[in-house]
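$ fold --in a.seq
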Amino acid sequence: MTTRTRLYRDGKPVEEDFALCDLADLLVEPGPVAWVDLHDPDDGDLAQLGDVLGLHQLALEDVRESRQRPKVDHYKSHLFLTVYSTRVGEDGELATAELGLFVTGRALVTVHDGFDMDDVLRRWDTADLAEDRVGVLLHGVLDAVVDGHLESALALEEDLEQLEDAVFEERVGDRELQRDTVRLRRSLSGLRRVVQPMREVMVALSRDRTLVDDDLRPYFADIRDHVSHAAEMTDSLRDQLTTVRETQLNIQSNRLNLIMKKVTGWAAVIAIPTAITGFYGQNVPYPGAEQPWGFWVSTTAIVVLSGGLYLMFKRRDWL
């Protein structure tokens, strides 16, 4: 396990990397708030954290089990939140990282396995509200998470635009196009599962008057607006992707119809010489049999009728 700790007083870090067992002593003095970051903790580390801060067993159990739904749980002495950061890789796949947060009156604890906290630290260091409140620290975390959701939605929007352009290209690999469509749909579905529950999380936090007071309420309202924006973008992109897929299928159907139309037209043209040569191949006497003019009559009929049928199909755009 990797542990990082900070103690804030007057909105500034005054002590870092202190031991977890010293947390209770540091919070005896009124005023400062603490941040504890646990990276890949085991059951013993979580049990020690629970003893120091008096965390509920159900919350500790939730943080042990990965792939929790984004949520906020209210306990007597603290809150427990589960959120996800998102990032779209170079291959277009959506990557997520789970983050569990324990919010007490004097401390914020983040528990994760791969969540990038560096951006959060920068936000804390440049926070406008230089006061000792856990709500300020929580705002920095949620602001970074939701901004990541918006960035992911914008990245997927760019991928969708490229997919739309590829649909109308003359020479495009259907298999590659289908693979990109499935990948984008999978990424959008994953982003939607992460973003949609965040609306409930932000609404629940905004109702907590102890954590979000009048000074912090505009900041949390701004995050809530960003969450709504990300959710609306995700839904819109899903609808656009469905339209692109339907357009792709319609184009393929039209191309197949065009091919069938041309094949049928050429088959009709070829049927004329086949019919005439078949007629003159009879083993019974007919006009012009064994005569030079009979050969020229049949040849002229083949050329005239086939050419006329070709011109008629061409004029009607069947060939």
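$ fold --in b.seq
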Amino acid sequence: MTFHVDEYKAAAGRYRAGMPYRRAGRSGLDLPAISLGLWHNFGDDMPLDRQQAILRRAFDKGITHFDLANNYGPPYGAAERNFGTHFARDLKPYRDELIISSKAGYDMWPGPYGQGGGGRKYILASADQSLKRMGLDYVDIFYSHRFDETTPLEETMGALDSLVRQGKALYVGISSYSGPRTREAIEILRELGTPLLIHQPAYSMLNRWVEEDLLDVLGETGVGCIAFSPLAQGMLTSKYLKGIPEGSRASQGKSLSPELLTEDSLKHVRALNAMARKRGQTLAQMALAWLLKDSRVTSVLVGASSVEQLDDNLLAVKNITFSDAELKAIDKHAVDAGINLWSKSSRG
């Protein structure tokens, strides 16, 4: 399937559609409370017209931030390439209203220089490739996608600093770094003159590792936080309450193993779902709202396989207030579900 043939004109009321904007730490940049992640659903396995409809709806509803990485697909690079096609067709006139981010850190191309990590050659080459795929002169945020214990942190942060000085990125970020490593990265970048803007950790009701020390580090140092996988790869939705439906991530082995959907885990998810219903929210809406209740969380990244799913998630911002009794009840069931696929990096 191909594109919708009509010419796109953004909704005139996109900034009156109810989307709150929150400051990223002590920077001068605001992000929408809900941002759109292109990890899934923007590879070559998704029809272009559906991708286009999701991107259009997102911008029309006030989502100004689109998050990518070099290896998003499938295949690797496809999400950036497809986004570049949509950008050229629909979003280019609105470039100055958009925050577009990408990352480098995992394996990407053959040979010793394309296997990921934090080396200078890999990061700078990756950034050039990403810009070419997306048809951009610069990205707004470029991330080190993971901590690389085999490369000096000074080299990794120096490469990010170079991207800013070369005009290829406006800001820099890191993803899945531990609290101590984050503090080191902040200090190195501060000395270089390119402050760290934001950290992107996996964070959800079922994956609360950031609460050990990372959120405190970010709050103390004035660095923003954007949570990815806020719905725990789909566990915090109504999708798995009665088993594993055909076509779901778990049924396809996409970032959610069926082995994680134990009866004990689902017992907690069902209890959280009942609490959400009492609040007049879906489980997904409550899970997003629960993250946004913390002022240190700048934004949450959602994926969407349809316009309808995106619309449902956007309703989360209508109620991000929780009573003490609600929070206490949620804590009993917001327990670790073994879904932190990025723990190796965050332990570094």
